[in-house]
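Curious: why these numbers?
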Amino acid sequence: MTILIMIGMIALAPAAINRFGPKAMIVTGLTVLASGMGWLSLIRPGGTFWVDVLPASLVAALGMSLAFTPSLGTAISSASPEEGDLAAGIVNTSYQVGSALGLAAMTAVAAANGADQLGDLPALTDGFSAAFLGAGLIALAGAVVAALTLRGRHPDPEAAPAALPGAPSQDIGDRRVSS
């Protein structure tokens, strides 16, 4: 998962953002993440890692890599230049706190649905299935919120946001824009 996330964030996400825009990638990434979590919720006590866990985990990793980079860029680019550092700090803190709260909430969901029954494999699996389903629903809700609230890419190149670092660009008059 980590390798796929790194490749996705370094190679795939910037190219996809330049082609489709950040809104499309945030919505797509969160939807793919929700699909991976939904697939993980189907795990059963007799399942195997190679069939039941790995493929779903890779789908979730792809979704994470597609959603993270454009959401970070969108949040930071929404701030004025003099507030950029503050925005980056708030975004990164939000990711950390959100991850901790999300883990705590999903642990509570898992425990409430049987994951606290360590000797009972079906109950334990049911608890984890509920947590994965809950995480998938949250990702899907995020995709819906992003689809409804984020503005799409403006068709006018003069109004286009600055390119991501490392993205191809071209000179247009006195400005450099994404190609």
